[in-house]
Design a protein that fits this description.
The protein is an alpha/beta fold. The protein has a single domain, classed as TIM Barrel (Alpha-Beta Barrel), CATH 3.20.20. The protein is built from 9 helices and 9 strands. Helix 4 links the parallel strand 4 and strand 5. Helix 4 runs parallel beside helix 5. The protein binds SN-glycerol-3-phosphate and magnesium ion. SN-glycerol-3-phosphate binds next to strand 2 and strand 8.
Length: about 250
């Protein structure tokens, strides 16, 4: 299946996280207003089993709470302020559930849902996310990504029509997974390498496989233009207006 995005596409990384607290509805609404092509968000399970949207496995950096997300039930997460760490005017923003996000912005912008169960790879995150996407009828409007290829395979088994993005760590570019054998081992429609790993040869290998290449995380407008010239199909940017602002 194809990914319905322009080339190059700008993914607002955790929403417009340059101007609003990451992974909150405020950051997502701002990204839509700025004209981002897509929004990237991070999803994991909390202690009571709901899918919540937050990047870190712990609460300290982006909320006024403490402890692990996986050990905190939704009722307690609801009490936390996920906005004022960023700026006082965002006080009252909270950690959204994925359900809330799909309700608010599903279908208004393409979503890259990163399946972030790296610490607990056997948990039912892929299936729970898939159930929500199906319930909202958003199979054509979302892409699942993960650094864990087996998590992607589980997502594919559950919702075969949703495209997959394989994230790779800095210095690793997918190796054998970019070739014909990779199609069998890890089905992906997009490779998501770290920005410093992108070379003309990598772009060519991914395109030969018939996939797109989206690279993370770009903050410098000149680097964004350099990557576009190399032929990348998209970038993850904290500021979705990165290119316009760079002149
Ligand atoms: O999807 C790109 C990027 O979000 C992957 O890394 O740690 O920012 O979720 P991270
Ligand atoms: Mg992410």
């Amino acid at each position: 299946m194809s990914i319905p995005l322009p080339t190059p596409a700008i993914f607002a990384h955790r929403g417009d996280s340059a101007h609003a607290p990451e992974n909150t509805l405020a950051a997502f609404e701002l990204a839509i207003r700025k004209g981002a092509d897509a929004i990237e968000l991070d999803a994991m399970l909390c202690a009571s089993g709901e899918v919540v949207v937050i990047h870190d496995e712990t609460l300290e950096r982006t909320t006024d709470g403490q402890g692990r997300v996986s050990e905190t039930p939704l009722a307690a997460l609801r009490e936390l302020d996920a906005g004022s760490w960023f700026a006082p005017r965002f006080r009252g923003e909270h950690i959204p559930t994925l359900e809330e996000v799909l309700e608010a912005i599903g279908g208004r912008i393409y979503l890259n849902i990163e399946l972030k169960n790296y610490a607990t790879p056997r948990d039912p995150l892929p299936e729970r996310v898939a159930t929500l996407v199906e319930r909202f009828g958003l199979e054509e409007n979302v892409l699942f990504s993960s650094f864990n290829p087996w998590t992607l395979r589980r997502a594919r088994a559950r919702l075969p029509r949703v495209p997959l993005g394989l994230l790779t760590a800095p210095g690793w570019t997918g190796g054998v997974l970019n070739g014909p054998l990779g199609r069998l081992l890890v089905p992906y429609e997009a490779l998501h390498p770290e920005r410093r790993s992108v070379t003309p040869a990598l772009v060519a290998a991914v395109h030969r496989r018939g996939a797109r290449l989206h690279t993370y995380t770009v903050e410098d407008p000149a680097e964004a233009r350099y990557l576009f010239a190399l032929g990348v199909d998209g970038i993850f940017a904290n500021d979705p207006a990165i290119v316009e602002e760079g002149g």
